[in-house]
Structures are given as structure tokens and as C-alpha cells.
Amino acid sequence: MLIDIAYVAGGLLALVICGDVLVRGAVAVAQRAGLSPFVIGLTLVGFGTSMPELMTSLIAAFQGLPGIALGNVVGSNIANILLILGVTAAMGAVPGRALLERDGMVMLGATALCAGLIMFGYIGRAAGLLCLAALAGYLIVTFRSKRPEDEAEEPVEGMSVWAGVGVFLLGLLGVMAGAKFLVQGASEIARAFAVSEAVIGLTIVAVGTSLPELVTSVVAARKGQGAIAIGNIIGSNIFNVLGILGITAAVYPLTVPADMAGVTLAVFILAALAPAAFARIRGQIPRWAGFSFVAAYVGYVVAIVA
Q1: Where's the Sodium/calcium exchanger membrane region domain (predicted)?
Q2: What's the pTM value of the predicted model, to 2 decimals?
Q3: Fold of domain 37-57+69-148+196-305
């Protein structure tokens, strides 16, 4: 048991540290290429911080652990909004316009697609390829479209393109190693405590692999970079479904665990809708809503673990 706990702790530490290294390299390359702050937050930062989820879900699927693989995706999206967006908003109101524009609508569409696949009970290769095709189309549109407000000057990471690529690859290798240890330790702990793999995936694994998003969004919010903070969360949620679930299902089809429906599915859908509702009504995610999101997340975890 102690060795399994050590695997989980070590895996999470590697994911956090190496995820940050990976993002720094990606952002350096993106800035040198002249990408705007919002596009960087939405794609490179949002997707880069999702690499721990990708590696974790792939490794879990290959080891025959669909509960951890799918629970990681669903649980990470829930944590991204209720926990990470909640903590970020609690530190200071977060602008919500992006939630009502194209990118926010894509996130809601990806959530609806994932919810439908969960209700179907099986996510096969065709569904995985459909997700990847949707992601490719979204990326093409995103990189081709620029808005004047995206062109604000941002400090450029002090490294060359090649140095950025090297840092990115180093971070990626560390993330892969961390994900392997995390899955191995988490699956053994689940067996030892007779807890379902889905619950482990929805809680320990999901929160652990979402730590890079939490660090990135909080740091961005403290620096007054609300666009990067909200873009990171939107981009991460889109990539979790269309990219991570898409790649995982295309490589290794998943059977949906029975305990993934019910409360978890309802929270998954409501968590995606709530920020958009606040953005529509208030134009932002106020601080009190941030505290409410965090409280809702704690209640959800208690409900599925108890």
C-alpha cells in the first residue's frame, strides 16, 4: 500500500512539475511565432496542460482500466470548472464573454457529445475519430481567425524557438513517466479499498491531472490575465473530450462503467452550463459564484465517494 501511495504522490508531482515545463516550452514557441494571448491560452496552454490527462487516459485504457480512462476525462472537466474556475473566480471576478462566443459554444457542444456517448454506453473507434475530426476543424478555424483585442502585447518567454522545443519535449517525457506511475498506484489503491476504478478516475486521478490547469489559471488571474485564465479552462475542456477521449477511443474503444451515469453525468452537464449562464446574466463569473462552484465540487466528491 505504501508503495502505491508513493507511486500516486510521485506521479502527481511529476505531472505538475513537468506539465509546467511543457507549457513554458510551448508558450515560448507560440510567442515567437506571433500568436495572440487568447489563442495561446486557448490552444497551447489549454491543450498543453491537458497532456497529463492524455497520457493518463491512454495508459489506463491500454491496461484495461476504462473507469480510470473515462473518469479522468469527465472528472477533469468537472474539476476544471467547479474547482479551478471556482478558485480563480473566488480570487477576483473572471470575465465571461469568451464563454458565450464561439469557443464557449464549442466547449458546450463537446460536453453534449461526451454526455451522449456516455448514455450510449460504449465509445468506439468511430466515435473517437469523429471527436478528432471535430477537434481538427476547430483548430483550423481558431488559428485562421484573429480579433483586434487578441493583439495586446505580451512579454515573450526568454528562450529561442529551439530551446522552447527542447523544453517542451523534456516536459512531455516527464509527463509520460508521471502518468504511468499515477495510473499504476491509483488502480492498486482502488483494489485495496474496494472502490470502483471510475470513482478513482473521477477524483484522485482527475484532480491530480488537473493541477497544471489550476496552477496556470491562478497565476494568470493573479497577474490580471483573465483571457489566458478562461482560455486555458475552455481549451482544456474542449481538448479533454475531442482530443483525449477521441485519441483514447480511437486507439482503444471504451465500455462506459455503470457508475459513470447518474449523479456524475448530471454534474458534468450542469458544470458546463453554469458558467455560461452567469456570463449571460452577469457578464462575468462573480466571486460569490466562484465560492459556490468550489462548494458544489466538494459536495459532488463527497456524494460519489460516500
Answers
A1: 5-142, 165-304
A2: 0.79
A3: A middle domain of Talin 1 (1.20.1420)
